[in-house]
Amino acid sequence: MKQKKEFDWFDRPESIKKLWIMLYAICGLLVVPDFFTHRHAHFGFDGLLGFYALLGFVSCAVLILFSKLVALVLKAKEDYYDK
């Protein structure tokens, strides 16, 4: 098995700061087209600024929470293979 280096690129504080800045920049750039597109809202609230970004975030959060609930039901006991 390959030993992990003492410090990888992702472990360095300056790299972490750069990654956060890149994340914020990409998220900001993805919001810019929302100002210039015309939406044909079917329900009224779906024409709001950033609605689809919020919908995607909430959908992802719900999927994560649902998967945690399913894991509680389907999880095997620690000694399952020891029998």
What can you tell me about this protein's structure?
The chain has 83 residues and is an all-alpha fold. It has one domain. The protein is 58% helix and 0% strand. The longest helix is centred in the N-terminal third of the chain and has 24 residues. The two termini are 29 Å apart. The mean pLDDT is 87.
Provide the fold topology.
Layout: H1 13-36, H2 51-74
List keywords for this structure.
83 residues, 2 helices, mainly alpha
Average pLDDT number = 87
Shape category: flat
The ordered string of helix (H) and strand (E) elements is HH
Q: What is the percent of helical residues?
A: 55-70%
Structural class: mainly alpha
| Number of DSSP strand runs | 0
- Uncertain runs are none
Portion of residues in beta strands equals under 5%
- Assembly state of the chains shown: single chain
Number of domains: 1
Helix count from the secondary structure assignment: 2
- How far the N terminus sits from the C terminus, by CA atoms, comes to 29 Å
Radius of gyration: 21 Å
Largest sheet: none
Short description:
The chain is built from 2 helices and no strands. The chain starts with 12 loop residues before the first helix and ends in a 9-residue tail after the last helix.
